[in-house]
Specification:
single chain; alpha+beta; Glutamine Phosphoribosylpyrophosphate, subunit 1, domain 1; five-stranded antiparallel beta sheet
């Protein structure tokens, strides 16, 4: 499984991707995010994927070849998203039937985010296995692909479109932490990507488990303390039977 998170704010973009790869009984570590940028041409984007590793590798190989032979550079990010979607459809035509015969799903999802020269602002898209896509909205300014159930609640509760990048990165880390604690197929290290609007420059950093352990422990202790301090008058009716 995978944890890949993309967040779009007024101020810019935040991305977080884990590196755990499961192949049968073997667990490996591999990068799940690709950065492509040319500051002179005002092109900057990141791409994350979730799904069968073989599908990811084949799709990315075809995508890279498509870009190498592209005679007309993209001036808007959605055009790059369309290119990826077309390549994904090609891989589906080649591999989907064989996978289904082996009781496997064609399950490659992707996040593409960034800003190109003629974009009025930075963008964030999620691409489905069918090659179609949706753009993130302001009411829910994030997408998660892979293992999304554990991390989504805190994002839904506190993340807003007008949040600052540092706040969003904190919340994104807590979403990853919730997933990593509850799912053994999501693990460190994590790759973090930050982008400020109109900068055309993606900044990346890798965090190991030891780098973030103090903050994970701080959060764990704060959760336990908050539960202990929660008003408990409402519990009286639940425990009334014991007091008779």
């Amino acid at each position: 499984m995978t944890f890949c998170l993309g967040i779009k704010l007024k101020e810019g973009l935040v991305g977080i991707a884990d590196t755990r790869i499961t192949a049968g009984a073997e667990c490996l570590s591999a990068k799940k995010v690709v950065i492509k940028q040319n500051r002179q041409q005002h092109q900057s984007m990141f791409l994350m994927t979730s799904g069968l590793r073989a599908l990811r590798d084949k799709t990315m190989t075809y995508f890279e070849e498509e870009l190498q032979h592209d005679q007309e550079p993209c001036n808007k990010l959605y055009k790059m998203v369309n290119k990826f979607g077309n390549v994904l459809r090609q891989v589906a035509r080649e591999d989907k039937k064989v996978l289904e015969e082996a009781a496997l799903k064609f399950n490659l999802f992707a996040l593409i985010a960034g800003q190109f020269e003629d974009d009025d602002e930075h963008k964030l898209y999620m691409i489905y296995p069918e090659g179609n896509w949706v753009e993130v909205g302001e009411r829910t300014p994030f997408f998660i692909i892979g293992n999304s159930a554990h991390g989504r609640p805190i994002l839904d509760r506190v993340l807003k479109h007008d949040a600052h990048l540092d706040y969003a990165l904190k919340v994104g880390f807590l979403a990853f932490n919730a997933t990593q604690v509850s799912a053994n197929d999501v693990a460190y290290p994590i790759d973090v990507i930050l982008y400020k609007k109109d900068s055309f420059n993606m900044v990346t950093h890798r965090f190991e488990a030891d780098d973030l352990k103090p903050y994970a422990l701080w959060w764990q202790e704060r959760i336990a303390q908050s539960v202990d301090e929660m008003p408990d008058e409402w519990l009286q009716s639940a425990f009334a039977e014991f007091n008779r």
